[in-house]
Amino acid sequence: MRRYVSMFALLLFAGVAGAQEPVVRPLLLRPGDLIRLEVPDVADLSGEFTVAEDGSVLLPLIGSLIVTGRPFTDVSGDIVKSYARELIETPVRVTPVLRIAVLGEVRQPGLVPADPTYTLADVLAAAGGLTPDGDAGRITLLRDGESLRFSLDDSGVLLSRRLMPGDQVVVARRSWLGRNMNVLVGAAASVVAAAVTSLILR
Questions:
Q1: Looking at residue 138, what DSSP letter applies?
Q2: What CA–CA distance (Å, rounded) separates 168 from 152?
Q3: pTM value surpassing 0.85
Q4: From the first residue on, what is the mean pLDDT of each consecutive set of 10 residues in the chain (202 residues)?
Q5: What is the DSSP letter of 107?
Q6: How many CB atoms within 10 Å of residue 122?
Q7: Which of 98, 50, 96 is nearest to 75 (CA)?
Q8: What is the spatial distance between Cα 182 and Cα 193, in angstroms, rounded to a whole number?
Q9: How many helices, marked H, and strands, marked E, lie in the chain?
């Protein structure tokens, strides 16, 4: 009896462990990303400040601070505390701004600045959308050596997929057949029309 109770407890524990939500990855800034600082009524302190190659960012009034390799929640907390020592009852808002590379068949390829509210759909829109040669069914998100493929038809995923530092979005080029289908159909229609006309005139 004790053996069965132990087995049941083990299975119950495994079920509870399996039901837990996946661990959320912390947001870690990289060199080239930015920190947006908003200090109401103090325009000289507000702005966007770039993370340097050594992982530091130079902020007005409080100086240099190492921000890479640390969860952004910790970075933000340190910045707010530093300004609280310098400013009296002045709220400070700190927002990460990521540089997301959007490449391939988009109208304006390059680096798109994206805050945490941006989704995959947002960065594609910021890059001007797909070119006429862009393959709407082959949109790839590259993250830490892994490739995740999406389609413009996956609107729910595109609107919910959040971005992380270092992400790259690549839109593939349509195949030759896909790019020239209209031409081929038009040519075939012309050939058929010519053949029908020839038969009628005989």
A1: E
A2: 17
A3: no
A4: 44 41 75 95 91 97 96 97 91 96 97 93 95 95 92 85 93 73 53 63 64
A5: S
A6: 18
A7: 96
A8: 16
A9: 5, 9
